[in-house]
Automatic annotation (TrEMBL):
The lineage of its organism: Eukaryota, Metazoa, Cnidaria, Anthozoa, Hexacorallia. It comes from the Eukaryota. Residues 154-191 form the p53 tetramerisation domain. Binds 1 zinc ion per subunit. SUPFAM superfamilies: p53 tetramerization domain (SSF47719), p53-like transcription factors (SSF49417). One of its GO terms (molecular function) is transcription cis-regulatory region binding. This is Cellular tumor antigen p53. It is found in: Nucleus. Residues 18-113 form the p53 DNA-binding domain.
Amino acid sequence: MFFSVIEEYSAILTGHTAPKHLLRCENTKTLYRTCNLTGRHELMFPTRKPDAGMDYFKDMFQFMCFNSCPGGLNRRPIIVIFTLELSGVVYGRKVLDVRVCACPGRDKADQESLETRKKNKMKNLNTPPPTPDENKPSTSGETPAGSHNGRIKREKEDEEEFTITVRGRDNYEMLLKIKESLDLMNMVPQSVVDNYRKT
């Protein structure tokens, strides 16, 4: 798995004991280290007894720049790994994907909207167009002699799938409506279409 160490080089923060660490802990007993093997930044802080009636304790953490900072994270994904250790023995581990942003509510809504659009797009791409039921008797009465062969040829041609690249959301939405209309038309018997056109 590829990872790279992200270091914060802000001139304002150079007075801190660990100016290159992106993550800081407000616990005064925190030790800041850099692993010699991986180059990862490490924060070590002691656990403490929880308050009465609680089964956990809280420590405050602060990220020194946003995911969008060009000099730091520059839109790269980051993870924070918490480990519970005693004398070098790891008793627990939790890995968190983290996104640091100025407006979490807006960014969450934007991300959810993007994910919904992606899911809908994939669903539309994976859903084959509906085909008429061949076992269903024709409602138009008898068919002319040559029309059966023409229908089979047309159905074989209709099995082909094509992909169109579209620029612009409005154009995409319009083509999606046209596709859905054509799919619905394929479900309607030809006699109903003919009656509709006569009126």
